[in-house]
Amino acid sequence: MAQDKLWGGRFTQPTDKFVEEFTASIDFDKRLYRHDIKGSMAHARMLGRQGIIPQEDVEKIVHGLQEILDRIDAGEFDFSVSLEDIHMNIEARLSEAIGEAGKRLHTGRSRNDQVALDIRLYLRDEIGEITDFLDRLVNSLLYQAEENLDVIMPGYTHLQTAQPILFSHHMLAYVEMFRRDRGRMEDCLKRTNVLPLGAGALAGTTFPIDREFVAEQLDFPQVTRNSLDSVSDRDFALEFLAASSILMMHLSRFSEELILWSTSEFKFIDLSDGFCTGSSIMPQKKNPDVPELVRGKTGRVYGNLMALLTVMKSLPLAYNKDMQEDKEPLFDTIDTVKGSLKIFADMVRLMRVNAGNMRGAAAKGFSTATDVADYLVRKGMAFRDAHEVVGKAVRYCIEQQKDLPDLSIEEWHAFSPMIGTDISDAITLEASVNARRATGGTALERVKAEIERAKR
Length: 456
What we know:
two-stranded parallel ribbon; mainly alpha; single chain
């Protein structure tokens, strides 16, 4: 019978079985149970405090909800598709357990503001865990930077050798990215951490509720200011998905470099066996599956952002059933981001750096050509003229199958008489790296300072 539903009074026919299954969200929103119960306890206490329901009912409700929480934690709670969602599953079981008092719990609220509360409570906790995982990854990067402080590698633009840099400087580049990701998560938390409960279905409630009391009970620093917006807002979830997409983009870029660096062509790093797999046919293979999979999962997170943006793009105020589609993209993104960060933090800490191969690669490809130009500028030549001189020297080296440090002083003089014997000291890898001392540069003294700054 339709009347078996908590909302069934209006209906004379039962819900079609397939419709019941199609519209139910309990299969995925049951993960909100802890937050749903926490919100209901705070709501019940407020109702009692305001004299809207008897205090003895409050005690029964809170006790009954605690028993349900314990049963779910113990895996002894059967969720029902016919009860649609986590809210109705818990409320129906509560009413069965404590009778009339359980039916009073929903006074002064709607499932619309209830689910808005649950998602905010849940996301608030998850953002806290994600920032912790980001801290772990940053610590792993700093560990590698300190362990390989003076290792020199080629820096690239267009994936072509550009200038020598410290490997530790490269690690610090990702530290900066992930610190910004952490800042975006903290920023998102500010807009997530607002209490929507009390908005009712869309217009508020006629009961004399105390929203500020509920906010205090649930550690929300503020309450929403418009009931329509309260139940229809998913900006905070979109903001989280956008921040997560940027975070995954950073992980994906790092993944691509780890994949390249672990190839036999580069041999810059060795990933721990625990984060790689072999081939079913080629016995020599060691595949970097973890960074490859994280790179692949990035598209999944992008898709979740686009999915929710598409859901929300045409919805009139206030709540619409379309908004049930907010949870799966959100939950999937949370799981993907947390898993990716956790595995990356462990993988990065355990990877081994092949310093000799990095240095060998940095010594090739005319990586100190800019240093020759800078040398000429310090001798008094205009930079554009110096650029041309060095370009001709590089072309000569290519024709002669030499590198810049191989040129004799006589060969250098053929390009400019301003070049002296001190050129050899100016274009060593160490000289090139350590000459870049400005804030943000790759000089060893600067990198050490940035490591200490990041650790603080």
